[in-house]
Design a protein that fits this description.
By secondary structure, this protein is α/β, with parallel strands linked by helices. The protein contains 6 helices and 7 strands. The longest helix is centred in the last third of the chain and has 21 residues. The protein is globular, with a radius of gyration of 16 Å. It starts with a strand and ends with a helix. GO terms for molecular function: peptidyl-tRNA hydrolase activity; tRNA binding. It catalyses: an N-acyl-L-alpha-aminoacyl-tRNA + H2O = an N-acyl-L-amino acid + a tRNA + H(+). It is an enzyme of class 3 (hydrolase).
C-alpha cells in the first residue's frame, strides 16, 4: 500500500488562539477537512487531531491521493512530538510530510512553498525539525507580514487578524488550501510556479 501524505496545519489549541495570525496553518487545515467532508478526531497514538482523506480529484475524475490531515493537540512550540508520532504510525516518508504555517518574512496574503531550509525563528518548525531529525519536509508558508513599528513579533503572531482584513484572510486560507492540493498532485516545482509568480 502506498504511504499517505501527511498534511499538518500548525496552531495553538483552544478558543483563545483560534483567530491568531499564528493559527493560520490550522485554519487552512480546517478548510481542507471541510472540502474533504472529514471530521478531525483525537488520534489513538499521537497527540493530534487527524482524519484520513482523499485530497482533491486525480485526472479522469478519480479520487486524489491518500492523505492524513492533522493538527497537533499540543501548543505550537512542541508540535514535533505529535508530528513524529503520526509519521511513525502511518509510515510517511519525509518527502510526503507537508507543514502549513504562518510566515513573518512573507508579505501578508502571499503563499510560498519550499522543501527544507531554516526555521526562521518559528518554534513550531524548530520542534518538528528536531523530532523528525531533519529539515527536509515540505512547507506551505502563509504570509502574515511583519509587525508594524516596534511591536514584538511574538505579540504580533499571537494577536488576531483585524476585522478589516477578514476578506484577505479568507483568500489566504483558500490559497493555502489550493497550494496543498496542487502540491500533492502536481509536485513542488509546478506548484511553486503557480503561486510564486503572483
Amino acid at each position: 500500500m502506498d504511504a499517505p501524505w501527511l498534511v499538518v496545519g500548525l496552531g495553538n489549541p483552544g478558543p483563545r488562539y483560534e483567530g491568531n495570525r499564528h493559527n493560520v496553518g490550522a485554519m487552512v487545515l480546517a478548510e481542507l477537512a471541510r472540502g474533504a467532508s472529514a471530521t478531525l478526531r483525537q488520534h489513538k497514538k499521537a497527540q493530534a487531531w487527524a482524519a484520513e482523506v482523499r485530497l482533491g480529484t486525480a485526472p479522469g475524475g478519480l479520487p486524489g491521493p491518500r492523505a492524513v490531515l492533522a493538527r497537533p493537540a499540543t501548543y505550537m512550540n512542541v508540535s514535533g512530538g505529535p508530528v513524529a508520532g503520526l509519521v511513525n504510525f502511518y509510515k510517511v516518508p519525509l518527502e510526503q510530510v507537508v507543514v502549513v504555517h504562518d510566515e513573518l518574512d512573507i508579505d501578508f496574503g502571499a503563499v510560498r512553498l519550499k522543501r527544507g531550509g531554516g526555521e526562521g525563528g518559528h518554534n513550531g518548525l524548530r520542534s518538528i525539525s528536531q523530532s523528525l531529525g531533519s529539515r527536509d519536509y515540505l512547507r506551505v508558508r502563509l504570509g502574515v507580514g511583519r509587525p508594524p513599528g516596534r511591536q514584538d513579533p511574538a505579540d504580533y503572531v499571537l494577536s488576531d487578524f483585524p476585522a478589516r482584513d477578514r476578506t484577505e484572510v479568507e483568500l489566504l486560507v483558500g490559497d493555502g488550501g489550493d497550494a496543498v492540493l496542487d502540491l500533492v498532485q502536481l509536485g513542488l516545482e509546478a506548484t511553486q510556479q503557480r503561486f510564486h509568480s503572483r
